[in-house]
Amino acid sequence: MANNLLKTPGDWLRQFYFKRNLPEPTGNPLYTYKISNTEYITLKHVLQTDSYYKNPQWKQCFVMYAAEWWRRQYQGGAWKWDPILSNIQKSSIPTGDRNKIVEIGLNCWKRDVIKTAYGRELLGSIIIEAGLPQSLLTMNNYINIIIEELYQELGSISSTNQDIIDIVEYICDKNGLPNIYRSEEFYRLLLNFVDPIVRLSDKYSLSKEKDPVRHLDSEYQEWRSLFPIRINENAERFLDKLISDVSQSITKYQNDISIKYRLKSFGSTWTCSAYLSIKSGAHHHHNLGLLEEEYNSLSNKTTLLINIGASASNTTHVFKLESKSQLRIDGLDNYKITSNIDQLAEISVSLFDDKSLDEYLLSSESEIDWDLSNPLIFSKKDNHESWELISAGSCTLAIDEYILLTKEAISEDQILSNKLTPIKNHSESFFLYKTFNNY
Q1: Is residue 251 exposed (0-12), middle (13-18) or buried (19+ Cβ within 10 Å)?
Q2: What global pTM score does this model have?
Q3: 186 domain-assigned
Q4: What are phi and psi of 104, to 5 degrees?
Q5: Does one domain contain both 125 and 163?
Q6: Could you report the per-residue pLDDT of 276-332, keeping only the tens digit for each?
Q7: Cα–Cα distance measured from residue 207 to residue 248, given in angstroms and rounded to the nearest whole number
Q8: Structural domain count, the chain
């Protein structure tokens, strides 16, 4: 079908799907469709010449055009519908009609309107669908710096709830994000860069690689497609630098709080306990999972709490060392938290500020989270007096002796097929089995 025959939104959509061998929309963000310059020009033409009142497919085409306009042509200034509508000679569309057009159009692409505590974000939804605008890719590196710091501060807890948005705003303000980009919609877009960085870093151990970009290219060639950005030469350079910078920063901060889960036998009675360890000395606030603004708001003396569900116990005092962004802690080595198996999933560590009465949750590191929905796998400790949790579920392990802990008894058929040996245990809270390879 020649471009000069594309007279209606229906014509444009049919050719759009045909070129991509698609029977219908994929449900992915609009920037992933990678529309060409020719498609963009013809899309503008059919929107100008056709009436949105007459053709429902106009709505679907409009949201695609709006997203592409923002990605291609936005150069700064107030975020308004006016320049998009004037470009297609539809400035007179009433606000109520425009809102319906956007909602219906996004639904046609199997995409949802963003909803916040303040209501539906229609223009914000279009901005997210567009991905990072081209104009930002050739500017200075403040966007990389902001995303890198978001990764360091938030990591895997990145989300779009209001508390997290406030943190993004703080980081953007500190790093001089231009006022034209300071909106919740743009903050959400930046957060959409953090999640793929977390996944890639964890899966491919990027902090251990001298050339993380080359490593990703060899292991997963499509990694750049995970990010909310239309891939071109500028975008590749932007993402390559971002991954390199973030990978170098990953090793800056390690988690200084560890929780271990250990099995011990006393005759035929087994117990499973949780132990907390923190070395004595100074700890950078990042290593404890504190955000910079949380550290800045702390009093000079706070209390380290161990929480089990709603109950908390004091362990030691923590002192602020303002000149070094650090906290001094009198260490706890293998501090036993609890042996109640039903409480092991409810453990957390926090700082309590006696002056402000604020409490700050700290991050802790363990080999694996306590989760009884899968069998838990324990390996012998060096002294052979206890067994330490190392994995869960089905996994491949070195040939050795292991203990499986389950909440429910394993069937006889599974015991035989997996070559398990039941262990006598007077505790009725869990069941134990020995194995010599993998479950």
Answers
A1: exposed
A2: 0.49
A3: yes
A4: -65, -40
A5: no
A6: 999 888 888 888 888 878 888 999 999 999 999 888 888 889 999 866 678 889 878
A7: 6
A8: 4
